Automatic annotation (TrEMBL):
Name the record gives this protein: DNA-(apurinic or apyrimidinic site) lyase
UniProt entry tagged with the keyword Metal-binding: yes
Region described as Disordered: 90-117
Enzyme class: lyase
Organism: Glaciihabitans arcticus
Segments forming domain FPG-type: 289-323
Cofactor needs: Zn(2+)
Alphabetic keyword roster: DNA damage, DNA repair, DNA-binding, Glycosidase, Hydrolase, Lyase, Metal-binding, Multifunctional enzyme, Zinc, Zinc-finger
SMART domains, per the entry: Fapy_DNA_glyco, H2TH
Domain Formamidopyrimidine-DNA glycosylase catalytic intervals: 2-131
CDD domains noted in UniProt: AcNei1_N
Family annotation (PANTHER family): ENDONUCLEASE 8
Biased composition annotated in UniProt, kind: Polar residues: 90-101
Molecular-function annotations in GO: class I DNA-(apurinic or apyrimidinic site) endonuclease activity; damaged DNA binding; oxidized pyrimidine nucleobase lesion DNA N-glycosylase activity; zinc ion binding
Length: 323
């Protein structure tokens, strides 16, 4: 499932290429025909992400809410700008099984560098993948729930968990149920909401970080890495975590989220040499402390990393450094 940085990156594609333009909406699959009719021909006036959910505003009055869930993805085509980290990937960016290559300095002059518009295809989900140039607009491929089309760019949505048209008050109610997102609720207020919610609950911190009503945007990768970076036992009840440590978790989540949006990858290791940093950008195995490293030695103490199931999701941690 896409984590917060991926959804913010998708929202930025809409901000760059759709906001301020008239959008034609359709549902090639047919399952969203009614909703598409409501927004067809309207101007997109805003695009924003909160945690794992994205909201597209039309004509300053109605919104399209999208939650990609486990299988959803957006395919963009037309004149768009893919940043260099996206263009370097041999797999969709940001997912745990990504394999990619790092662009050389010479790549800045290529047609895949930052700021180079071209007619192409870009898939954005938990990973991102740049495809070959295609005629515009491309024919819909597969079960496209909704197509959004301007005179220069198209966006096709497949397989979302949620895709619905909402009124402003419904959007406000949906966002109110979510925990704080550092890119939306920055500053002391967002931090305090996070602290209050964690410190009021007997639930293990390893589960609280995945609870979108406690904090928005954290998924399985960031959960495991944040806990290790804090040397925090995932089984410790939230109410027993010292306040200063909860605040440190929020600050670290803010840092990692911003970095993920910038890079398009979940980079969670610090202090790497240039060579190791480039290797980490290219291979997930060199990018994380504990995630997906069951049975491998802890990078700090050498103890084998443990994996256990927690609320149906895999939880990775070091039994020595995190107890």
């Amino acid at each position: 499932m896409p984590e917060g940085h991926s959804v913010h990156r998708i929202a930025r594609q809409f901000q760059s290429h759709f906001v301020g333009k008239t959008v034609h909406a359709s549902s090639p699959q047919g399952r969203f025909a009614g909703g598409a009719k409501e927004i067809d021909g309207l101007e997109m006036t805003d695009a924003k992400a909160v945690g794992k959910q994205m909201f597209l505003e039309f004509d300053h009055r109605i919104w399209l809410k999208v939650h990609l869930g486990m299988y959803g993805a957006w395919d963009f085509a037309g004149d768009l700008t893919a940043d260099a980290t996206t263009a370097s990937a041999n797999g969709r960016m940001g997912q745990t099984n990504q394999r990619g290559t790092v662009l050389s300095d010479d790549a800045e002059a290529s047609n895949t560098s930052i700021g180079a518009p071209r007619t192409t295809r870009l898939r954005m989900a938990e990973q991102e993948k740049v495809g070959e140039p295609t005629p515009f607009p491309p024919e819909p491929v597969g079960a496209v729930r909704v197509r959004l089309l301007t005179d220069a760019t198209s966006a096709d949505l497949r397989g979302p968990t949620a895709c619905e048209v909402l009124q402003p008050e419904e959007v406000a109610a949906t966002i109110a149920k979510l925990g704080p997102d550092p890119l939306v609720d920055g500053g002391r207020k967002g931090e305090q909401r996070f602290v209050d919610r964690v410190r009021s609950k007997p639930t293990p911190i390893g589960l609280l970080l995945m609870d979108q009503t406690v904090v928005a945007g954290i998924g399985n990768v960031y959960r495991a890495e944040l806990l290790f970076r804090a040397r925090l036992d995932p089984h410790k009840p939230g109410r027993d975590v010292p306040e200063e440590l909860v605040r440190a978790l929020w600050k670290d989540w803010t840092k990692l989220l911003k970095l993920g949006v910038k890079l398009g990858q979940m980079m969670t290791m610090d202090g790497l040499s240039k060579k190791k940093y480039e290797a980490a950008l290219a291979r997930r195995d060199d990018r994380h402390w504990v995630y997906h490293r069951e049975g491998k030695p802890c990078r700090v103490c050498g103890t084998p990393i443990v994996m256990e199931m927690a609320a149906g999701r895999k939880l990775y941690y070091c039994p020595t450094d995190q107890t």
